[in-house]
Structures are given as C-alpha cells and as structure tokens.
Amino acid sequence: QVQVVESGGGLVQAGGSLKLSCAASGRTSSVYAMGWFRQAPGKGREFVGSIIWSENKTYYADSVRGRFTLSRDNAKNTMYLQMNSLEPEDTAVYYCAADDSGTYSFDYWGQGTQVTVSS
Which residues, at least 6 apart from 62, have a Cβ–Cβ distance to it below 8 Å? Predict the structure, then answer.
C-alpha cells in the first residue's frame, strides 16, 4: 500500500505561480510512477502530468506543457508540480496519484488540494 498526501494549493491571480507537493509514504519502494490529475467544477478528471519515478521521465498534458513542471525528491519521496503562468481555466481540485503496477493504473489517490486562479 502507498499513501499520498497533497499540499500547496491556494488562491492566485492569473499569471501567477503555485507549487504543489505530493508526499508518498508506505511501500514507496514499489512506486513505478506518480501523477497529477485535476477536476474542475462540472467536469471530469483530467490528466495533468506524470513522472516515472526511477527514470525521472516526465509527461505532460498539452494544456499545461511549457507552463507546468514536474519534479521529484527521491530522498523525501515527494513529487512537486510547479505551476507558472496560471490561467483561470487551471482552477480545479488537483489530485496526486501513485502507481505501483507499472501499468499507469494509479491505484492510490490523495484527497486533493484546491487551486483557484482569479482573473
């Protein structure tokens, strides 16, 4: 079992920046990938980005590529999402998830953290 906890959400003006953190605990040695997803009001959950832990290889949704950056601290078992040039359309609850199967099934989810971008 892996547990993940997000932090760092908040309110920011358009054009501003925020950095989210996701701390993993439990069987962290089994983590293959971690990812960020988001869900805006009235919309479905959307993939934001992911990182293959051992390779430090990142993937991004087209909507955030060039503005958001994923990174990780192996020693702290923590993943980060640096969000720059934020837009009102980025307003959502952001969720962290972990996958230990190697199939991107992301079986472990955090409780989410709210990001609100005002225009």
Answer: none
What percent of the chain is predicted at pLDDT more than 90? 97
Longest Cα–Cα distance of the chain, Å, equals 41
Rounded to 5°, the CA angle 18-93-50 comes to 70
HEC assignment per residue over the chain: CEEEEEECCEEEECCCCEEEEEEEEECHHHCCEEEEEEECCCCCEEEEEEEECCCCEEEECCCCECCEEEEEECCCCEEEEEECCCCHHHCEEEEEEEECCCCCCCCEECCCEEEEEEC
Predicted pLDDT of residue 78: 97
pLDDT in tens, 12-37: 999 999 999 999 999 999 999 999 99
Q: Across residues 64-72, what is the average pLDDT?
A: 97
Determine the Cα–Cα distance for residues 89 and 14; give it in Å rounded to an integer.
10
